[in-house]
Write a structure and sequence with these properties.
The complex is a heterodimer.
Chain A (H helix, E strand, L loop, with lengths): L1 H7 L18 H9 L3 H27 L8 H8 L8 H12 L8 H18 L4 H21 L3 H20 L4 H17 L1 E2 L1 H52 L5 E2 L9 H27 L4 H16 L2 H15 L8 H27 L2 H9 L4 H31 L11 H11 L8 H28 L6
Helix pairs in contact in A: 5-11, 5-17, 6-7, 6-8, 6-9, 7-8, 9-10, 11-12, 11-14, 11-16, 11-17, 12-14, 13-14, 14-16, 15-16, 16-18
Chain B lengths: L1 H7 L4 E12 L2 E12 L3 E5 L6 H8 L7 E6 L2 E2 L4 H10 E4 L11 H11 L5 H14 L15 H13 L5 E5 L7 H16 L3 E5 L3 H7 L2 E6 L2 E6 L1 H6 L4 H12 L1
Parallel strand pairs in B: 3-8, 3-9, 6-7, 7-8
Antiparallel strand pairs in B: 1-2, 1-4, 4-5, 9-10
The chains are: A mainly alpha, B alpha/beta.
Bound molecules: adenosine-5'-triphosphate and magnesium ion.
The site of adenosine-5'-triphosphate (ATP) has 11 residues of chain B, from strand 2 and helix 2.
């Protein structure tokens, strides 16, 4: 009896201090044991994997190490590299500008470069709204832009001009980061003018359409409400763009400032990929949001239209759409509108991505508990306020990985435009390079080069999405 | 205490519900509801699960639509007219069982959002009001945290403060304590009692009978979508008339 008693009743007389875990449970040893050598199968797999990696590296390394940078043709490369062979990077050195700019006139490279630099300035407030990190980004981009201009452009005037503009923007980003949003809003028109050239009044006249929209909205909204205001504003603006803008532009033609026009068929390489990718990415997100909301709407017509659109687009391969679109869009638009090929492609890729984005966002919306809608309603927020302030911030946050995946896919899909005769970096430009008598027979190097650039861009997007997820993490679950 | 409470109740009608019916599809969830709530009254609604208590108070701010009869809140009848709905919603605050705070906003932002966007109050002023009410529910020091960092009881008090920031004239509570641990229930009930003592018109779905006895002017018992019995708390608990009420009371007070 007394024994059991002694066992059940126990009083600690001395408290134990914490001790280090045993050696096998600490540091590198623990990591190795848990991750590489846990059990026999795991150990065997580790060894096999190590062997495979070693074998691959051993196979490929000489080719990489023996790379030839200075040669004028593939044959010369082969001679220099000798019998063990080696990569012929000389082709990249000779033709890199085509991979970047396509057939864009060489003496005008400063225009896409400045447009590219300004793109990051325009992105800064979107990526880091109101933060000093935005200014840092602008600073780095400003320096890079000026340096690449100095290296590529022989007109010192352009370099100085770019330096002054960039310095001004950096100052703006530093002093009033939120003001940078105006640059973002103006950027599409500015970039259009820089890239395609022509009279500045064409983009300005297009911009005026938005002015018309706002003006009509301001006039209508107090009398007929938000919905009617938006609708009439939008329709008036569309009418303006279709029927009035042409004459405005024609009337102002020849009035300076003017840039030498560049045709769409001169665009190519990553310049083309960026024009299509960036435009489609920035337009598809708002359209996708509207489609997702439409799909969840109570209004039957809007719901049916959204569902029909999304399902149609998702059911048809992008290439089919690229092929047929040139025909179909011509039918729907007023006759004699000469529709630019790049613009057509951009519209299609945008719609294509929007359908996918809509579905991703719908998933985010469905993940929100009903209580969020009810709380917003109970507080008296109207539909758009609730969407903008409560629902979308949360739904978009949940959807970030899916949205960024779609964007990455979209960016890579821009290479498909080679099928409608545009010069994408992967197939279009490479074909031209390989058609050159000097580089005939080259195979790996151009693809590796293009692949690495695509990888860097997509990896960057992916990392940014992870940063964003971390930054927006407030639920502390 | 009872005297003092009665004095706060005015003759002015805050909510009038007459011959109201509601269906979910073909399911008749609320049947012929008639009730009047005077300004300053505190009403506790109880009843078994599925009896339609939540549905009833959600009809009062039109989170649910009724199909027959009339609901008049502060002189505004609830119809499909959006203007009326907005008006009623800005007069009526609601506290939910699961708090429904906005997880992506700080406590302070949760409290200032609706005043700024619905009432168009300047931000400074809205923040001052929010801090005032957060002090009232005794958590001003949490203002810059996110809802996920607070305990359930604290979150529910924030939810109450958030509703109060809209300066409502009527407050609806839908089982505000039933998702909480016992030690947190008291802090929320204390907040509600303080609110009652200031003369707020309150409709409260709850099974906290202690709370009902302490602050309610009237207890309404619902079953199968109908009001079965209503009475002053003392009478209701000590001397229930209907068999359904007796059974219900024996079940919830039994243990
Ligand atoms: N959206 C809905 N669609 C269909 N039926 C519903 C819906 N919401 C509730 N009901 C049904 O209506 C009845 C009343 O629901 P209600 O939520 O009002 O009950 P309650 O009294 O609040 O119950 P509890 O104490 O469990 O919260 C229940 O039978 C429920 O199943
Ligand atoms: Mg309920």
């Amino acid at each position: 009896m007394s024994d059991t008693h002694a066992e059940t009743a126990f009083i600690r007389t001395e408290m134990l201090g914490p001790q280090l875990p045993p050696v096998t449970e600490r540091g590198v040893v623990k990591w190795l044991r848990e991750n590489l050598f846990a059990g026999w199968t795991n150990t065997a797999l580790t060894l096999v994997a190590l062997f495979v990696v070693f074998w691959l590296v051993q196979l490929a390394l000489p080719w990489w190490l023996n790379g030839v940078w200075n040669a004028t043709s593939l044959g010369e490369c082969r001679t220099i590299a000798g019998p063990e062979g080696g990569a012929c990077w000389a082709v990249i050195k000779a033709r890199w500008h085509q991979y970047i700019f396509g057939f864009y006139p060489q003496d005008m490279y400063w225009r896409p470069i400045v447009a590219f630099g300004l793109m990051f300035v325009a992105l800064a407030p979107v990526l880091y709204y109101g933060l000093r990190s935005g200014a840092r980004l602008v600073g780095v981009v400003a320096v890079l832009t000026v340096v690449s201009l100095a290296a590529l452009d022989h007109d010192i005037g352009h370099v100085v001009l770019a330096a002054v503009v960039m310095a001004g923007l950096f100052a703006l980003a530093w002093v009033a980061p939120k003001r940078l949003v105006y640059v973002t809003l103006l950027y599409p028109f500015l970039a259009f003018w820089l890239l395609w050239g022509g009279s500045i009044w064409k983009p300005v006249a297009t911009l005026a359409g938005f002015g018309v929209m706002v003006l009509v909205y301001r006039l209508i909204q107090p009398r007929l409400g938000v919905v009617m205001g938006t609708a009439t504003g939008f329709i008036t603006a569309c009418l303006y763009w279709l029927f009035v803008q042409g004459s405005v532009t024609a009337a102002l033609a020849g009035v300076p400032p003017e840039l030498v026009p560049v045709n769409s068929d001169q665009f190519g390489g990553f310049l083309l990929a960026f024009v299509i990718g960036v435009t489609a990415i920035s337009c598809s997100l708002p359209i996708g949001i509207l489609l997702a909301l439409g799909r969840r709407s109570d209004m039957l017509l809007i719901k049916t239209l959204s569902v029909g659109f999304i399902e149609f687009i998702r059911g048809v391969p992008l290439i089919t759409m690229l092929f047929t679109a040139s025909l179909l869009l011509q039918y729907f638009l007023p006759p004699r509108t000469n529709f630019d090929l790049i613009l057509r492609v951009v519209i299609l890729v945008t719609l294509f991505a929007a359908a996918y984005i809509a579905e991703v966002i719908r998933g985010g919306l469905a993940a929100l508990p009903r209580g969020q809608y009810e709380a917003a309603d109970a507080l008296g927020l109207d539909y758009w306020q609730a969407q903008r302030l409560i629902i979308m911030p949360q739904a978009l946050k949940i959807s970030i990985p899916g949205i960024v995946s779609t964007f990455i896919g979209l960016f890579k899909d821009t290479t498909l435009v080679s099928f409608v005769g545009l010069l994408d970096p992967l197939r279009g430009v490479t074909q031209i390079v390989r058609a050159d008598i000097n580089w005939k027979g080259i195979y790996w190097e151009p693809y590796i080069f293009v692949g690495v650039i695509f990888f860097l861009i997509c990896f960057g997007m992916s990392r940014y999405s992870m940063y964003l997820e971390q930054k927006l993490k407030t639920d502390h679950r | 205490m009872a005297e003092a409470q009665k004095m706060q109740v005015s003759d002015e009608v805050a909510i009038r519900i007459s011959n109201m019916n509601k269906w979910y599809g073909t399911f008749h969830v609320l049947r012929d509801i008639n009730m009047t709530v005077n300004r300053g009254e505190r009403i506790v609604i109880c009843g078994p699960s599925g009896s339609g208590k939540s549905t009833l108070i959600r009809c009062i701010n039109r989170l649910e639509e009724h199909q027959q009869g009339q609901i008049v809140v502060d002189g505004t009848e609830l119809t499909s007219d959006l203007k009326n709905i907005d008006k009623v919603r800005s007069e009526v605050g609601m506290v939910f069982q699961h708090f429904n705070l906005f997880p992506h906003l700080t406590i302070l932002e949760n409290c200032t959002l609706a005043p700024i966007w619905v009432r168009k109050v300047p931000k400074r002023e809205a923040e001052a009001t929010a801090m005032h009410f957060l002090e009232k529910v005794k958590i001003p020091e949490q203002a810059h945290k996110y809802p996920g960092q607070l305990s359930g009881g604290q979150q529910q008090r924030v939810a109450i403060a958030r509703s109060l920031c809209m300066k409502p004239r009527i407050m609806l509570f839908d089982e505000p304590t039933s998702a909480l641990d016992p030690e947190m229930i008291k802090e929320v009930l204390d907040t509600m009692i303080a609110l009652a003592e200031e003369g707020m018109t309150m409709l409260c779905v709850t099974h906290e009978m202690g709370f009902a006895q302490a602050v309610a002017n009237r207890v309404i018992f619902m079953d199968q979508g109908q009001i079965v019995e209503q009475n002053e708390p003392k009478e209701f608990f000590n001397n229930p008339k209907s068999d359904r009420t007796k059974l219900f009371l024996s079940q919830i007070l039994g243990h």
